[in-house]
Amino acid sequence: EATKRNTGARGLRAILEQIMLDVMYEIPSRDDISKCIITKDTILKREKPLMVTAERKKKRKEETA
Q1: What is the mean pLDDT of residues 28-56?
Q2: If we measure between CA atoms, which residue out of 21, 14, 15, 19 comes closest to residue 1?
Q3: Radius of gyration (Cα) for the chain, nearest Å?
């Protein structure tokens, strides 16, 4: 995306901030989110980031134990 626009680091930062705007406001108000994963599709296809909840993380740990 940044290469298409021929921008540098500041341009890349602006792109990421635009994509993550909703997430940056949503996450602090939620106690159950332990991780936010930005994927290639989040950037290129404007899909929502993957929100990993504390419960999901706990289940994954239990499955591997």
Answers
A1: 88
A2: 15
A3: 15
Residue 8 φ/ψ region, left for φ over 0, alpha for ψ in the -120 to 50 degree band, beta for the rest: beta
* Tokens of residue 35, six digits: 């991780």
Q: Are 50 and 44 in contact (CB under 8 A)?
A: no
3-state SS, residue 31: coil
Residue entry with tokens 């404007």: 46
Instruction: Say how far apart CA 29 and CA 24 lie, in whole Å.
Output: 10
- For the chain, what are the domain ranges? 9-64
Per-residue pLDDT at 56: 60
**Greater confidence, 3 or 40?**
40
pTM comes to 0.62
